[in-house]
Every structure is written in structure tokens, then in C-alpha cells.
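Weekly sync, protein design subgroup
Attendees: M.S., D.O., the rotation student, P.L. (late)

Item 1: inverse folding check
M.S. brought a backbone from last month's batch and wanted to see whether the design step gives back something sensible before we order anything. D.O. pointed out we never logged the input encoding, so this time it goes straight into the notes. C-alpha cells as presented (359 positions):
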């Protein structure tokens, strides 16, 4: 099992490890990536990734998420479409996205819940489907496609995401070839080689794993789609520096944030470290500290000791309302006491006037 963000540093080492373990020749063994968000594997296999086309085929190099932010900030791009995401809340490097959205002339958002970031920066916001209103398919980390069926009707002017994208493509000069959800799924099955021949009726209730199917032979060879590059060295190495990592709490969701009845589930920031690191650095469980990176950015967090955290690392939560990990920009952090507030000196006492003295 590996986290999707491991691919940000290149997957060459991952493939070498799989080869050394003989996973390809072992029945029931393989690599399973855990995506950052629901249906992350399905989106990637459909071609929703930079430089990747449908079926994981190579495609002309596009802009990944950090490159989009940089292009907006520099003026290379002037408009951005945010499909179900508030980058200030959910994506790494909030400072870069604040600069990007400030420079964008047009920000179109498609969202089910309003956030402070969208209220401040969006030019127009379209209402998006809630989870219970969606139809289509979802691909699980093990390659199983399952069918999504709407549990409730869409409310008001809400339109499905595929409809919005199809309408946008048509108005930009493309063909108006998709008229309903079933046609959208059929187009996906036709475009992805290893999905070929699937139907919504075949998926039924349990779904179908595509890797055991004969069509899995359409999967491109790894060397044709995975870049190998050495891992980035740490920007600083000293006794107090910890490698920074982040994760998203199961309760860090728009639904929880929008529900007054679920306010008790709202996650607050904590920094998870190993007992060995805590002992070495003099940290105590439950004490609120300042987690600062080399850029000078910092967040408040309570120390939490966890045996599962590798020594030398620190993990914080992202996509939370206050002190989110995406406020940090560096690869390493230090955990230090919160500075005491500096009180301004009292104003000098003025000499009493003659009238005040007489009174």
C-alpha cells in the first residue's frame, strides 16, 4: 500500500521495490495506491491528470496543480475553473494559491458548499451535486468499478458535473455528444482501453475488477508513463528539524463543517510525533506548541504521541478551518513553545495642568 502523494517524487523506487519483492509473479500480490480523495484512481484512469490521457496513456504535457497556481500568479493564465475544490482550504501551499486567485481575472467555482475562500475570490459559483445526488461510477483502489446511483433528486438549478463539462465543451466548439449519465459512462468505457466492454448493467451492485479481465492487457507499460527522479533532499538538517507530513481527518469534510449538529466533530490541529522524538525534543503529550517551518510560517497544534509515526517526522492535519497544515511551505518543521505575547509599554503619564491641580 502506498499513498498517492508518493508519486509526486517519482514512482521509480516504488516499481523497483515491487520488482525486488517479486509482486508480478506472486498470485494475489500487487501495488495498491491510496488516493488523497474519493475516486482518485478513477479520475487518474479517466485521464484527469497532467500528462496522462484516458487509460493512463501518454498525453501532451499539461499543467499540474502547482503549475496552474504559478501560471495564474504570473499572468500566463487569467481564468481558472474550480470543480469541487477550494484550493485555499484543501490544497498544499495556501500562500501560492492566495497569490494565484488574487491575480486571476475570472474564477469559476462549482461547489456544493460555500467556503470563505470561494466567497472572497469566485466570480461566479454554480451549485454542485451532493454525494447522494450523483450518478456514474467510482473506481476503488483495488481496481473495482462500482456504479453510483442517485438516492435523491437534484435540487433546484443543480446540474451534474458531467453535464457542466459537456456543456462547456460544446460551447467551446466541441461536439454535443453526451445527453445523459448512461452516455457519459459509456463514453468512459470506450475511451479507457482496460474498461472496454463494461456496461452499467454488468457493474450492477458488486461491481467489476478490471485487472483480472482480458482487457487489462491495454494497460500501457510502466516505463512509458512514470518518471523516475531522485528524492528531493531536505532543505535543512539539524537536531530539532522534523520532516513534515500531513493527512486529512475523516471528519475534515464540507458536510461536517456545514452542520451545526456535527460541530463537536470539527477537528483541531495536532502534531503527531513518535515517543522517541518527543523524548529527544522535550515534548509532552497534549501541550499546545508552535509548529514552524524554515520560511517563517507557523501553526498552533497540540502534541500527540504515536508509535506509528517514524522517528524524525511530524504529521499535521490539512483541510481544517484553523491552523491547517497547508499554511506551512517548508519540508521540515520545528516544534517550539508558543511565544508569550509582548505587551506594549504603558503610555507616559502626562503632567497635570494647572486647572487639574487646582481641582
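Designed sequence read out in the meeting:
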Amino acid at each position: 500500500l502506498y499513498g498517492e502523494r508518493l508519486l509526486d517524487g517519482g514512482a521509480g523506487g516504488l516499481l523497483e521495490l515491487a520488482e525486488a519483492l517479486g509482486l508480478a509473479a506472486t498470485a494475489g500480490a500487487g501495488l495498491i495506491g491510496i488516493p488523497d480523495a474519493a475516486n482518485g484512481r478513477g479520475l487518474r484512469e479517466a485521464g484527469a491528470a497532467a500528462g496522462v490521457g484516458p487509460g493512463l496513456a501518454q498525453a501532451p504535457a499539461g499543467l499540474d496543480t502547482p503549475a496552474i497556481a504559478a501560471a495564474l500568479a504570473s499572468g500566463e493564465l487569467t481564468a481558472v475553473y474550480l470543480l469541487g475544490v477550494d484550493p485555499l482550504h484543501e490544497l498544499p501551499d495556501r500562500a501560492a494559491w492566495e497569490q494565484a486567485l488574487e491575480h486571476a481575472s475570472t474564477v469559476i467555482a462549482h461547489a456544493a458548499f460555500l467556503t470563505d475562500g470561494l466567497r472572497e475570490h469566485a466570480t461566479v459559483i454554480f451549485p454542485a451535486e451532493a454525494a447522494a445526488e450523483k450518478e456514474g461510477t467510482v473506481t476503488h483502489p483495488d481496481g473495482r468499478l462500482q456504479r453510483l446511483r442517485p438516492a435523491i433528486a437534484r435540487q433546484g438549478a443543480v446540474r451534474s458535473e458531467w453535464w457542466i463539462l459537456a456543456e462547456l465543451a460544446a460551447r467551446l466548439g466541441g461536439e454535443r455528444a453526451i445527453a445523459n449519465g448512461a452516455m457519459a459512462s459509456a463514453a468512459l468505457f470506450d475511451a479507457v482501453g482496460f474498461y472496454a466492454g463494461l456496461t452499467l448493467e454488468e457493474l450492477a451492485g458488486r461491481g467489476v475488477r478490471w485487472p483480472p479481465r482480458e482487457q487489462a492487457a491495454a494497460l500501457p507499460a510502466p516505463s512509458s508513463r512514470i518518471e523516475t527522479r531522485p528524492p528531493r533532499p531536505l532543505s535543512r538538517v539539524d537536531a530539532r528539524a522534523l520532516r513534515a507530513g500531513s493527512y486529512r481527518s475523516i471528519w475534515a469534510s464540507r458536510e461536517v463543517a456545514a452542520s451545526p449538529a456535527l460541530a463537536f466533530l470539527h477537528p483541531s490541529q495536532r502534531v503527531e510525533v513518535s515517543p522517541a522524538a518527543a523524548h529527544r525534543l522535550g515534548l509532552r503529550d497534549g501541550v499546545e506548541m508552535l509548529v514552524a517551518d524554515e520560511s517563517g510560517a507557523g501553526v498552533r497544534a497540540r502534541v500527540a504521541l504515536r508509535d506509528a509515526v517514524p522517528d524524525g517526522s511530524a504529521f499535521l492535519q490539512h483541510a481544517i478551518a484553523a491552523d491547517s497544515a497547508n499554511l506551512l511551505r517548508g519540508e521540515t518543521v520545528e516544534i517550539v513553545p508558543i511565544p508569550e505575547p509582548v505587551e506594549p509599554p504603558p503610555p507616559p503619564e502626562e503632567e497635570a495642568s494647572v486647572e487639574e491641580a487646582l481641582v
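Discussion: Residues 161-171 form the longest helix (11 residues). The radius of gyration is 25 Å.
Action: P.L. to compare against the previous round before Friday.
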